[in-house]
Automatic annotation (TrEMBL):
A Gene Ontology biological process term: cell wall organization
Keywords per UniProt: Membrane
All copies of domain PASTA, residue ranges: 658-716
Similarity remark: Belongs to the transpeptidase family.
GO CC annotation: plasma membrane
GO MF, any single term: penicillin binding
Pfam families xref list: PASTA, PBP_dimer, Transpeptidase
Name assigned to this protein: PASTA domain-containing protein
Compartments reported by the entry: Cell membrane
Organism: Jeotgalibaca porci
Source taxon at top rank: Bacteria
Keyword ATP-binding: no
InterPro entries named in the record: Beta-lactam/transpept (IPR050515), Beta-lactam/transpept-like (IPR012338), PASTA_dom (IPR005543), PBP_dimer (IPR005311), PBP_dimer_sf (IPR036138), PCN-bd_Tpept (IPR001460)
Topology in membrane: Single-pass membrane protein
Amino acid sequence: MKDQNNPQKNRRNMTRVMMLLTGLVFLLFIVRFSTIMITKSVNGENLSERIDDLYTRSSILPAKRGTIYDIGGNPIALDATSYSLIGVLTDKWSEDKEKPNHIVDKEKTAEVLAKYIDMPREEIYKIISQPDVDQVEFGNAGSDLSYGVKMKIEEENVPGLVFEETPSRLYPNGIFASHLVGYAALDEEAKTEGESVLTGQMGVEKAYDDLLKGVDGEAVQQQDSLGYVLPGGEMVVEEPTDGKDVYLTLDRRLQTYLESLMTQVYEEAQPESMVAMLVNPKTGAVMAATQRPTFNATTMEDIDLKWQNLLVEESFEPGSTFKILTVAAAVEEGVFNPHVTYQSGSIAVEGGIVSDYNKIGWGQISYLEGFARSSNVAVVKLIELMGFDVWESYMKAFGIATSTNSGLDSEATGNYNYDYPLEKANTSFGQGVTVTPFQLVQAFTAIANDGKMMKLHYIDKVVDPKTGKETKTVPEEVSSPISAETAQSVLQYLTEVVYAEYGTASAYQIDNAEVGVKTGTAELVNPDSGRYYTGTYEYLYSTAGFAPIEDPEYILYVTLKLPKNNEQKLFVDYLSDVFNPLMTRAISYAELGEDSDTPITEVEIPSVINEEKAAAIDVLQMNGFSAIGIIGNGSRIVQQFPVEDTTTILNQKILLMTEGAMTMPDVRGWSRDDVLKVAEMTGVTFEFEGEGYVVHQELSEGSLLNPEDSVKIILE
């Protein structure tokens, strides 16, 4: 009992226990510390990687998206930079009171911005007067601003206005095969993660997105806890790989003219839709193609009117243009004798009666006259002579109900009903069978190319901008459904449709070449009732033409669906208003030797940014560029188009912008496309009249350009 109450002994025991516990803790610390030193990790987390995360910052080096050109090297779609306006309302980032970084005078700021963005001064003032907000944006009015507008705002020297760069895509030709070319826009998913990535959304931009977008690079920097780069901090850079450039088979001259013709007819006829495409049957190259409704890929105006690419996404009954294929099969099978006669009017087929479009026919006529008059009875008799199974084998050989493998999104294959004799008979004149324009025109290449059907394509070549390596599209023969002799015979029979007094296509004669044409009037199914329309003009009208007929260089196909305005003109006049001038111009280009196969001299544009104006012009001229336009009254170059290091052709117009006030250049003799480049650089709107080249400009050279005003330009 005495030992238990000994205080001295108790203290010694407690001391021993404390020393033991301390030793154990110290031992655990040594073990733990040694483990960390050896493994360099804590709770499974690598400490080196954690330090890198804390003090290393990486940034993306964006790749330049490839440029899309026409076959002559004229840009159709190219990278650009747009700017979004931001207003800074807080003074906490203003270190120098004499040079504030925030908005100080709200009245003046609102007054200045109202001059350059599409927003009333009162609304701007309301936005920048919000309490307890560090910074504000200005909605759509403050987004997608051009470099020219940005410069004008900055020249006002109003503090607190900053600009955020955003990659964008420029389509300098406006409406230009818009559904075929498509468009690229910022990827919404990437946007939410703070990245700005352009992604193809439609057409070529989408189909060839992997080639066009390239591969981004990366820059890595060591920073301290405040975000400053550490002295000697290592930067590891993975250089970006720019996207490939894509050259289309489109000819800008013909495409621009086609767009003008289609717009005129679309506004007059007021149809539900239209399609037109011009093709080289020897190679299958699409030289011009468009549709209505369409849209402007830069402004996105009218994009909601029609999302479908009507060239490939919508199939329809072609009507009598399909008889070209029926007659070709009959000639190949030896059952078409142009001089043998038959009784026109109507023919009984198991399951019903097939009649000619006028119901009574034209009496006893030859098969050639029947073809020229677009007789349904004639082609029904022809497929009965060759046999329904044989006729079906020809449809398959011509690619009917088979994808053309265009590479474009959502391509339709079409189909045909072929269970009963009446259904089989109807296919001979393009009813009960559906096709896309791509399919039908591809089939027609066999008629114009000695029996060889060529795969339609719209890509001429793909070029690596870094190495210059070209991947050229090689024309591809899909099949040979008919012989060369048959093809030549059908072409001659097509001239009967145009030049015989009883032919249905006399309106399509042109002055500079003999043509072969077949027209079509196809019934349409009313989507509400599921039955064919019964109105007088409720059809899909079309024309397919070949020229020059002795050795066709072009096939032109045009459709007009459900025109509403049939009082001033009939469908044939509307179609010929597109067909005749475009085919005439295409033939003229070929006769002059100005076809698109002419070799292009390509060079790289040097940078002249920050050069004195005179020196910049000298540099460009020494590199072979003579077509140079100057925007602005300053002496130093602040922007150029095309941008430096771009590969282009020597006759490309080079635009230079100086510091100081924006002034109007002399644009007489320029093309519409060149003037539109001025619009992109300055933000000024130009109103065009006519087509061709500039003969008059409303503002004289040297006049001040105001983004709020529009400038009238007359082309001829």
